[in-house]
From TrEMBL:
Subcellular location(s) of the protein: Cytoplasm, Cytosol; Mitochondrion intermembrane space
Lineage: Eukaryota, Fungi, Dikarya, Ascomycota, Pezizomycotina
Highest taxon in the source lineage: Eukaryota
GO biological process: ADP biosynthetic process; AMP metabolic process; ATP metabolic process
Binding locations of AMP: 77, 82, 103-105, 132-135, 139, 207, 218
Residues binding ATP, per UniProt: 56-61, 174, 183-184, 246
Record text on subunit structure and interactions: Monomer.
Organism of provenance: Tothia fuscella
Protein name, per record: Adenylate kinase
Amino acid sequence: MAPITDDAVNELKKLVSKLEGRINELEGRLDGRGKGGGSVSDAAQGMRMILMGPPGAGKGTQAPKIKEKYCVCHLATGDMLREQVSKKTPLGREAKKIMDAGGLVSDEIMINMIKNQLETNSECSNGFILDGFPRTVTQAQKLDEMLHSKQQNLLHAIELQIPDSLLVARITGRLVHPASGRSYHKIFNPPKQNMTDDVTGEPLIQRSDDNEATLSKRLATYHDQTSPVVGYYQKTGIWKGIDASQEPGQVWRSLLGIFEGGAGAGGQKHGSSILNKLGLKN
């Protein structure tokens, strides 16, 4: 009998790992049904996340793709605040009074808006992407407290990292679809038709504050606020950084690597036991 080559062993290990990952996913779904709840996939469990990054890092490009692939809600806090105000909800009316007086909307109001979305927005039943919040360590702590009260916790805090010097070209060429938040770029990620959203065919806009002078101020504020928040999530072990200077497709693959890598780690215990039985464990 010919000896088994190293390549064959490695291929078998990969196959076993994939099979065990699939088994774990199915076991998780069965466990969910056994507890009287709906089946919840590993992917949905892994989508309680925040997405951080400076203006122009690509959050508006990547968040809708995450939302579509994993069927979760995208909570961009700025858009959420404007929606509450326009609908004249109790939270919206309270926030409008504060903004009209020149004040900043309190952390409590923002947390309650997020909580309201999680409880009333059907898209949030499989998980959520938070974009634009938290901006301070205090907000991060209050968010954790709110989620813990719902017996949940954040599973990913992903930061899109990019040098400030590369952001000017990105920002000044950015185009946005106001209704969905989808973003494009005149050079790097143009729409199929000029100034037209690929999905709806509606017009795109260029935001008035997407200019170099405004960007410099926003970046300074972002770095001052975000560095402590990054440190907070690094301590919890859920932070991951991604090089956002890459082309959007590679950034997307990096994101998938984080999500799928998390699921794969859950299958390692069973995978290791099978490899041991086969005598292939290193």
